[in-house]
Design goal:
4 strands; 14 helices; two-stranded antiparallel sheet; DUF1751-domain-containing protein; mainly alpha; TMEM115/Pdh1/Rbl19; Rhomboid-like fold; transmembrane; Rhomboid-like_sf; 349 residues; membrane
Length: 349
């Protein structure tokens, strides 16, 4: 009974959106595999086929649940459920579901329009019926963008031996997508390009920050400089990209396509849960400083313990060299940081 209870307990601990989205991916992909096994490869009701999707509009979202090969399904199950589980515990189920629907749906809409433009330019029907968009590549790049916003400096290991920071992963995946498109594999690799841009726009301007409330108002987006569009590109490109980005931003703002405002008073917060994260960072720094001070005070204490008569004979000197008073500033550092953490956690809630 204990053997059967452990998997059930593990499944029950997974947040609902992550659990049901993963289950739906397995079911839809298995159904497509069964159809392919029986010789049915054209499935416009499952995958996004630009020439037929207007008759099956649900595929603009549900096509993400279909992986065409076993290896694609394995990669998706390794990467997406743990990522969604992390985001859902931080954002909540509703915001996570909205994030999935927006990133997948709008990426597929852009791919649909892009293929129709290619068809009108070339008159080649391969762009309408030969490119079934599917899978969760757009969602994979979207969660990488979200992690870049939340934990950009976190160190990860890729394939067990390549160490890198989280903020470098989206552009590495985007570069791979570009190379695959150039060599002729537009479908489904180009969806990564669209997923990156859609997810950045959504997180930058539209996502509701569930844990950050300013003046009783909900906050939206993250308009910090570290999450700007130019921050994704090398510094030498900034003089060219920044003026054009500012122009597009002002135009979109004038047309009310994005929420107005550029500070906390106008309804956005730098990073969801940033107060809590900052408190943890300050706590870690305080503990590190405490350890260093304890290490530095160990040597004087050892030398003073060997000369107790000198300490008694010269109380003025002992008061300046004794390690006992040094505990007071160490304690005050921790108490100050604990106070900052308490305030930050109160504001984060």
């Amino acid at each position: 009974m204990a053997i059967l209870q452990s998997p059930l307990t593990l499944i029950a601990s997974i947040p609902p959106v992550t659990r049901y989205f993963t289950l739906a991916t397995i079911v839809f992909s298995s159904f497509y595999g069964w159809l392919a096994w029986n010789g049915t490869y054209s499935t416009p009701y499952l995958t996004l086929i630009p020439g037929a999707s207007l008759f099956y509009p649900w595929t603009f979202v549900t096509s993400a649940l279909v992986e065409l090969s076993f290896w694609e399904l394995i990669i998706t199950l390794i990467t997406i459920p743990p990522s969604l589980r992390y985001l859902e515990r931080l954002w909540g189920s509703i915001e996570t579901l909205k994030f999935i629907a927006v990133c997948v749906g709008f990426s597929n809409v852009i791919a649909f329009g892009f293929n129709w433009i290619e068809y009108m330019a070339t008159s080649s029907e391969v762009f309408l019926y030969g490119m079934p968009y599917h899978g969760q590549m757009s969602l994979q790049i979207a969660v990488l963008v979200a992690f870049t916003q939340l934990i950009p400096e976190h160190q990860v290991q890729v394939m067990g031996f390549i160490k890198t920071r989280v903020k470098t992963l989206p552009m590495a995946y985007l570069t791979l997508s570009t190379v695959m498109c150039i060599v002729g594999f537009q479908c489904p690799w180009i969806i990564i390009q669209f997923g990156w841009f859609v997810s950045w726009v959504y997180l930058r301007f539209y996502k509701k920050n569930t844990h950050d409330v300013v003046g009783g108002m909900d906050t939206y987006g993250d308009r910090s400089e570290t999450f700007s569009l130019t921050s994704w590109f090398p510094p030498f490109t900034h003089p060219v990209l920044k003026p054009s980005g500012d122009f597009v931003y002002k135009l979109a703002n004038r047309l009310h396509l994005i929420p107005t405002g550029g500070d906390l008073e106008n309804g956005y917060a730098p990073v969801p849960g940033s107060a809590r994260a900052e408190a943890e960072r300050r706590r870690a720094m305080a503990l590190k400083a405490l350890d260093q001070r304890l290490a530095n005070s160990s040597s004087p204490s050892a030398s003073q313990s060997t000369n107790p008569s000198q300490v008694q004979a010269s109380p003025a000197v002992s008061s300046s060299n004794s390690p006992v008073p040094n505990h007071t500033p160490q304690k005050s550092v921790v108490e100050a940081e604990e106070g900052d953490i308490g305030k930050a956690n109160t504001s984060g809630r």
